[in-house]
Amino acid sequence: MNIYALSSGRGPSGIAIIRLSGKDTLKICQVITKENIIKNKEVNLFKFYDPSTNNLIDEGLLLFFQSPNSYTGDDLAEFHIHGSNAVISLFLDVLSKQANCRMAEPGEFTKIAFQNNKIDLLEAESIGDLIHSETELQRQQALRFIQGNASNYYNSLRDKLIKSLAYIEAKIDFAEDDIPDTVLKDVHTAIEEIYKEIKKTLEDQRVGEKIREGFKVSIIGEVNAGKSSLLNLLSKRNAAIVSEEKGTTRDIIEVYLNLDGYPVILADTAGIRESENNIEKKGIELAINRSKESDLNLIIIDNSSKQVDKKILDLINQDSIVVLNKSDVSNDNSGEYKNNGILISVKNNKNIDKLIDLIKDKLSKKIIDTKNILVSRERHRNKLNLCLLELEKFLEKKQSKEIELAAEDLRMATRHLGAIIGKVDVEEILGSIFKDFCIGK
Questions:
Q1: What is the pLDDT of residue 15?
Q2: Can you say how many angstroms the Cα of residue 119 is from the centroid of all Cα atoms in its chain?
């Protein structure tokens, strides 16, 4: 089956790109262009026709990539046409009428590339991340994964596991052969090293996921201290209702921001105070719980306040910034929070740039080294944890007495690790056995 889709955004636009892939791609291109010779990996300037009417659709560029040297691994063509909705619609309609040709499902070109071993599962996911990246940090992280940094790491670990499993399998299946008794001891040492390496990888404070999904920054504090106004100012829109009435915000209001390259999920919460209103009390509970889940809390205090609720003061720690709003009011409490605070005025847009710099500085300290980020999704983390559990089982066993069970532990560990990059292959284990032991000569 051949698949096609509009790969650029919907028109109108100067240029639109329609992609076609499958075994009949070249034949379909020849029918639509009325040209027999279409150069591979070169820019072809052609007229495009509707085969059913011979009417001209458009004139544009055709790029043809012959299998297996294409993005999908199958024959692939890209039609560069004018980006009007009329041209795009007609071109897609013409392709739909070709034999064994259908509209591609979401992500199907990348799925075929994975199935044809052009990319692994990590790289496929990262292509999606790059397409949806909105900040510089997200772009950089997605590119590193696409370039294979994480894939190379996981493949290296997997190769070590396969080799260790091959030794164990050989010890089981060819016990009468001259296989040294030190094999099991060497395998145990190798697995200990792999275990430590994976454990270290998981101790990354989930930075990869936070970059991909956004750092949670919550605005917590007093009622009528300007929390909702700050949210609106930072998001540059009226995302939250602002009112002189106390306790207006009851639920959590989230806004996604690109804060000078940092992906941030900014949340406005209910003002913390003693209240008899059950709905407001629930909102205050949600606010306190959200503060515990956040990567950074902006503790908003009215600069003119003479007394601050203890629940608010208890939230001040190294993962918070005390924001004293309403600096236009004469009273100044900034001295009390000089080590962890900033004086601003949302009303007068005073020191907001300095607040943003403080937020960025706090978040930057949570990023250990972006070059070493190897886990960007919960799926990866889950598989690594499952791999660790199997390695723990292996290390707890006495391999000489429970060698079959120990082999199964390594088998499962290899499977979990391989699932991250989309590889599970029994033949590789057999290949490793024959390579290392020359069995069957």
A1: 94
A2: 16
pLDDT at 237: 80
DSSP 147-193: TTHHHHHHHHHHHHHHHHHHHHHHHHHTTTS---TTHHHHHHHHHHH
Q: What's the pLDDT tens digit per position in 304-351?
A: 777 888 888 888 888 899 999 887 665 555 556 655 678 888 888 889
pLDDT tens-place string over residues 193-230: 999 999 999 988 888 899 999 999 999 988 888 888 89
Cα distances (Å, whole numbers) of residue 97 to 2, 59, 239, 254? 12, 20, 47, 46
Q: What residues are paired with 102 via a beta bridge?
A: 3
Q: Which two tokens stand for residue 438?
A: 């020359």
Tokens encoding 2: 């051949």
Superfamily of domain 150-204+374-437: tRNA modification GTPase MnmE domain 2 (1.20.120.430)
Q: What's 48-93 look like in SS3?
A: EEECCCCEEEEEEEEEEECCCCCCCCCCEEEEEEEECHHHHHHHHH
Instruction: Give the pLDDT band (50/70/90) at residue 89.
Output: very high
CB 226 within 8 A of CB 258: no
| Closest by Cα among 240, 351, 358, 227 to 301 | 227
Task: Give me 116's structure tokens.
Answer: 């044809």
Q: How far apart are the first and last CA of the chain?
A: 44
Q: Give the CATH architecture of domain 211-364.
A: 3-Layer(aba) Sandwich (3.40)
Asked whether 209 and 375 are in contact (CB, 8 A), the reply is yes
| Exposure string over 257-274, b if 16+ CB within 10 A, otherwise e | bebeebbbbbbbbbbbee
Q: For 93-118, b where at least 16 C-beta lie within 10 A, e where not — what string?
A: ebbeebeebeebeeeebbebbbeeeb
pLDDT surpasses 60 at 22: yes
How do residues 122-153 score in pLDDT, each as one tens digit? 888 888 888 888 898 899 899 988 888 889 99
- How far is residue 273's CA from residue 291's CA, in Å, rounded to a whole number? 15
Superfamily of domain 2-109: Probable tRNA modification gtpase trme; domain 1 (3.30.1360.120)
- Name the residue ranges covered by the structural domains of the chain: 2-109, 150-204+374-437, 211-364
